[in-house]
Sequence to fold (844 residues):
Amino acid sequence: MNTTNQKIVFRSDIMQLVMAFGALILMVIIFSILSPFFLTFDNFVGILLATAVNGILALGVTFVIITGGIDLSVGTVLTISAVMTGVLITNNHFPVWLGITGGILTGGLAGFINGVVISKMKIPPFITTLGMLYATKGLSLVISKSTPIYFSDSPIFRKLVMDSALGTIIPGFNIPNAVLVMFGAAGIAYLVLSRTILGRYTFALGSNEEATRLSGVNVDRWKIAVYSICGLFSGLAGVVMASRLNSAQPALGAGYELDAIAATVIGGTSLSGGEGSILGTVIGAFVISVLTNGLRIKGVPQEWQMVITGVIVVLAVYLDRWRRQR
Amino acid sequence: MDQVLLRMEGISKSFPGVNALNQCHFELRAGEVHALVGENGAGKSTMMKILAGVYQKDAGQIFFKGEEVVIPSPRAAQHLGISIIHQELNLMPHLTVAQNIFIGREPVNKAFPLFISDNEINKKTAELFDRMHLKLDPTIKVGTLTVAKQQMVEIAKALSFNAEILIMDEPTAALTESEIDELFHLIRKLRDRGVGIVHISHRLEELKQISDRVTVMRDGQYINTVPTKETSIDQIINMMVGRTIFESSPELPEKADQDVVLEVKNLNRGTVLKNVSFSLKKGEILGFAGLMGAGRTETARAIFGADAVDSGSILIHGKKVVIDSPSKGVRNGIGYLSEDRKRYGLTVNMNVNENIVMASLKKFMSFFGWMDEPKTRSTSQSLVKSLNIKTPSLDQKVKFLSGGNQQKVVIGKWLTADTEILIFDEPTRGIDVGAKSEIYKLLNDLARQGKAIIMISSELPEILRMSHRVVVMCEGRITGILDAKDATQESIMKLATQRTGIVRSDETNNLTPETGMA
Fold:
């Protein structure tokens, strides 16, 4: 009984991607019909840019969720990474590249701590990362003295992400670098997840942790690695965000973890672990930003946008379950 | 062929409160299949887990190819060439066959060492399967395979370590007849290549087919090692049960009523329950005997409505009832006392009073769903008295009570709910000897008061002492129903290990298992 069930699940993981992508295309078509402003180049750039931060966050979350864990702290780890970048570049006049590295590593450190607490102290991921959410939220305010840090002295920082390298190569095709960063990060995440030992153990942990341990794999170490990676992606998202806003906003970031988890789940990653894909997560992130963008263009109030997003998340998972049970 | 591969001598092991192994021996030759048998809890698995590095021995020596070895971890065992296949399959269903086999030692891409070379593990796995004459695609996901095929993957994984000793803990428990044939075919091939194989199993006829020698264990003791060919199944069973029959005589309520309270007809559920039929009379204690996984708990759960069945009917007082949820079970007067009290029977963080009234809150409700607290307390108080529950007060959290008293709280709970049929699943598990006899007395009293009782137990002496009749199950089927006067440890054991049995509740004499194979 069990095995036939699983048979259906496995045959359908590609189906899941096709369905998610189909839903995305369908949304684009519907919004294009509903509004003449939706299908314009400028609006598309807007959607891409809006997806960048959430997309990068969701990449890290995908790793964690495939192991059967959860990371609630990615939003505020993003905040503290942005703030650290500001502290390094603006307050301490470090070179920009060093500031960026410092920001990303701050995220990695937070993830590392998450991983150590979860694997060594055996605290459930939900609790651990909830604690990290509060801690990084508070620390961001402490470090920045609760005021935004601007990058006015280092204009290059904003240009890095908001200029368009593509635009200089193909005139008129002005897609900001932030979007390239996201796709680059997704490419790396894809390779790590599908080709490396880390990726293999990410799936193995989520599939059957005890069996993985009995196979002689150092389960704790790889779990720490997975949470660290998630932290690094949060750090990168923080840097991109700071660059885009030309400032580190110590109060911005809390709540972003929900969008990232939603994107991951819509993309077909199973919260019970063992299943998921980077491609799915990227599609999921686009589903959310297309939805938000389209509803805004149609003049749907922000409050209702949230309601609709909530319904879509639950519906996506319900459809997935229903499809599997057939 | 006759080279001694492994000797374990004077192995002892105790766990908190249990003496699991006492001075046990075991010997394995290259190219033999050595069966290890014994009742539940005889210490077979513990012995082999010590050999596989899962547990550490307290005393004794292990000699591998004549040299003494220390095996501190599963890894160390694998390096020596000792592989174990555990009772529960240890595979990752979302990974492919090859990925499972090479987990923990993935070869990397030569050109780009960050990446795993899936090509290489697929190739190596295909070679491995070739040697095993196994037709299986290395790139298929393990979760899509049947249990038998997954078993093969486990074996392949064990062999990929170049195992010289292969331990299989009940490998056939979940397999069908033809799958077992397939497995045995493979085992014979490995034996011919000089691998020493330890085969733990409850299925005695099976041992006749596959093993060269049999070692019998009982209650953590080594009993004997005999050549399979020269030993009959009856002799093995005798060695397995061996101990003297229970000291004190049964003190059953004289005669059960003739009123049939519960009648179960042809219950079927997947491969777990097959045509289970029996009846239960008023004032009767009906013992359910069988080995682990025989389907006894599953039968109880099906009757109680905890698991859905595929087909079959249940009659209470001759009237057909539909019980598809535990709440309907309770409404029809059935109480189920789980073998895992702490998980299913009690809310251990709540107090004695709250637990006792848990299953019958409606009785204590006054208007607007208000609880009649004084009434619950007086009910609980009287039960604490009549069941002799030792607790400082009604407000004591149940988790602080002893196992025996916890069991009595569960009984109190079902008595409060006015259940007429009580199903006890391993009622004395984890309870010390003194409390045991109190539980026995309680069961007898309940039967005398006219309750109909089903008692599932893995302890044969308990079954023999307590039951008016004994239902014996094996692999989801009822292989026999014995009257108390015909039930002995031997007759029950025979039925419990009867794989190809015929259901005959009246002619127990004809139930000698076929043992034709040499």
Summary: Chain A touches chain B at residues 1, 3, 6-7, 9-11, 191, 195-197, 200, 203-204, 206-208, 210-212, 214-217, 274-275 (CB under 8 Å). The domain at 15-21+40-325 of chain A is CATH 1.10.3470 (ABC transporter involved in vitamin B12 uptake, BtuC). Confidence is low (pLDDT under 50) at residues 1-11 of chain A. The radius of gyration of chain A is 20 Å.
